């Protein structure tokens, strides 16, 4: 396909999924001859190999008028240096800075990767910022059906569901995975140790079910979770950040997600592709990813999560049925080619 006009991707601080998603887009569009650039905080630019010209723009995690105006000025300069550029912002914060920075003639696409959670003044401010982004963007993409519906309610003109395929994992080695997980029945969760991931519910479910759970990932809640594991003598192993998730998936009996909210969760997609039986909370877009492959339970319901987990671990026949459903569902998940086709179409629509 012939190259389109230049594209500037904008994102805030990222430690995982959003950064990997943008890096994949940069790689694929660059391979087609598109002039691709990235603007992001310096720590994000160091963390990911975007492989394209990059401009540091310090977009913070929360609204800060002084910092946001400074970021908007930096982004305005970066966009002005590329005639005919389309800006594609990832996340509400990046979208807000882009809305502040760009003249109306500059086409703007915004992908919403996360919901505004919580209550009170902070949540109201978050919704006001989101509404501003939705009204300014030429096209809004939401990673889950609830985000798409919310964007419509807040005044977005053109809205679609984003495609966010997980990066492909190489086949795992079960023996190497078992060397980490140990022998005997075990469930695996891969998650950033942060409030959105519902890890308090996971710990409670592990305690109630008696099923051993290994959690791969790091984050700000590590010390708190480790203290709870010790205090409750819970059957939970905190593995820290891992680069052998494929091996762990090859060795585990069940994959587990207890999130409060998700869009198109990477670990859930990885578990489906690995043919692993899955227990998850019915959070955000999780059901849209799993279809009927997973055992889904209400968000925050530790009793239901424990019962589903214990049921799968105790029943090898059902695990086999669920594993086959995982493989079948994985074959229906979007690919990078699907993502690229959507982005081409959306960028063309935004340019008019």
Automatic annotation (TrEMBL):
SUPFAM superfamilies xref list: UDP-Glycosyltransferase/glycogen phosphorylase
Keywords, comma-separated and alphabetical: Glycosyltransferase, Transferase
GO molecular function per UniProt: hexosyltransferase activity
Domain of life (superkingdom): Bacteria
InterPro entries: Glyco_trans_4-like_N, Glycosyltransferase_grp1
Signal peptide positions (record): none
Domain spans labelled Glycosyltransferase subfamily 4-like N-terminal: 16-165
Biological-process GO terms, alphabetical: carbohydrate derivative biosynthetic process
Pfam families linked: Glyco_trans_1_4, Glyco_trans_4_4
Name of the protein in question: Glycosyltransferase involved in cell wall biosynthesis
Biological source species: Kineococcus rhizosphaerae
